[in-house]
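Notebook, bench 3.
Goal today: get a predicted structure for Polyisoprenoid-binding protein from Kitasatospora griseola so we can plan the truncation constructs. The sequence was checked against the plasmid map this morning, with no discrepancies at the termini. Length recorded as 183 residues. Pasting the sequence as submitted so the record is complete.
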Amino acid sequence: MSASLTELTGDYVLDPTHTRIGFVARHAMVTKVRGAFHQFEGTAHLDGADPSRSTGEVVIKAASIDTGVEQRDQHLRTNDFLDAPTFPDITFRTTAVEQRSDSDYRVTGDLTIKDTTRSVTIDFEYTGNAVDPYGNLRVGLEGSVTISRKDYGVTWNAALEGGGVLVGDKVVLEFDVSAIKQA
């Protein structure tokens, strides 16, 4: 049996084994490269009575980037892209939450990549809640946002012989979240 929105009020942690923080970027103007970050921590406070009072924070380890191609992943960790040795964390901290409908929320926050922080707004769909076999109350959210990597100082590229560039500027960040309510 699913809990009401008011019953969901409380503090949550992201379940890293059931949460995906991914991305999609255009490659060579013709295809998309998909990947994910495998090391992250996140917390949230959900206020079911007044969702605008909800908050959240996610800290992603930049070096955990994985596109399935180790050589590419190593390049993405360098100063050409994320500069993981210098800037090990990518962070997102909410600044506003707006309930748009029974299942749609607009979450605005500060996204920091490398040494640049910009405000982004992510539309999330609340996908439901359930008590798992271990007695944990879980909530699910799915959302995405498109950012310009150049806005964060990630400008490396290579020109293609026939025109265009190797790496597209727009990156779609994808969030499939399972969060567990804390006692």
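The chain is about 5% helix and 55% strand. The two ends are 19 Å apart (CA to CA).
Flagging this for group meeting.
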